[in-house]
Amino acid sequence: MADSTKPTLLDQLRQKSEALRAEDQAARKPMEEALQDIDRCLWRAFRWLDEAIGHLQVIRPRVGHIFHLGNLLSIEAPRFDRGFVTFRRRALAGTEVLEHVEMFYRLEGTNPITLRLNPASAAGVDERLRASTLPYQYQTEYDEKRVVRHGVFQIQPAISASVRLEPNYHQQLIAVTLRNVDRFESVSLEFGPDGINEAALEDMLKFMLGEANGFLRRAPLALIRNRRDDSPAQLSPLARVNGRR
């Protein structure tokens, strides 16, 4: 007969989960204190990033990344053009706190890109260009019989990138979402409130500029959205934008 005094597997799991939940709650700060700490952390990040972006607009450095869009095109070492930092506030628990801090910036390649494709390929390329946010124009080329022979994309190598810091005050975490920072994709990471300090912001800026990738090792990867450059389009030439061939 089964020993009725021995805890069941479900009882064991319940005890372990309750113990871990209690440890997690004990490690967290009281809500009011956590709100203030996270809000102060985000304000410091806003001021730091706002000053940094102002300097970068003056220096306009080259960024050490290569942005590939499948085998359609490649933008190498674009130059930092301009940017700005913004924030939004909201009411929470009887006080006003930052809802998010977001930095937007623009990188520019050297030369415009022309893609001349089979018309059947144009729809898929149009979708991928829209997802990448690269500005472009499209027109068709006809032969002497007015038959469409090519779809022609005129693309400006202007990359719109952003970094968003969004707190979860209840869980006492800060999500950092990098969009088009080192490639045409979005990556999200999660930090504790103490993880967004000046050293982390310096690593973030170095990663943006292509100097080092230490920032990605500072937090567990929370989410990688589907890459927009994973499945190369067929019958499409490679255009490289770096001033060299």
Strand order of the largest sheet: 3-4-8-9-10-11
- Spatial separation of the terminal alpha carbons: 80 Å
* Beta-strand fraction estimate: 35-45%
Give the overall form: extended
Number of helices: 4
Helix residue percentage:
25-40%
In total, the number of strands is 12
**Major sheet:** 6 strands, antiparallel
Low-confidence stretches at least 5 residues in length (pLDDT < 50)?
224-245
Gyration radius (Cα, Å) is: 24 Å
Structural class: alpha+beta
How confident overall, as mean pLDDT? 84
The run of helices and strands is HHEEEEEHEEEEEHEE
Spell out the blueprint of helices and strands.
Layout: H1 9-27, H2 31-59, E1 66-69, E2 73-76, E3 79-92, E4 95-108, E5 113-117, H3 119-132, E6 136-142, E7 148-155, E8 158-168, E9 173-179, E10 186-191, H4 198-208, E11 221-224, E12 239-241
Question: What does it look like?
Answer:
This protein is an alpha+beta fold and 245 residues long. It has a six-stranded antiparallel beta sheet with strand order 3-4-8-9-10-11, covered by helices on one side.
Condensed summary:
The chain is an alpha+beta fold.
Defining traits:
alpha+beta, 245 residues, disordered C terminus
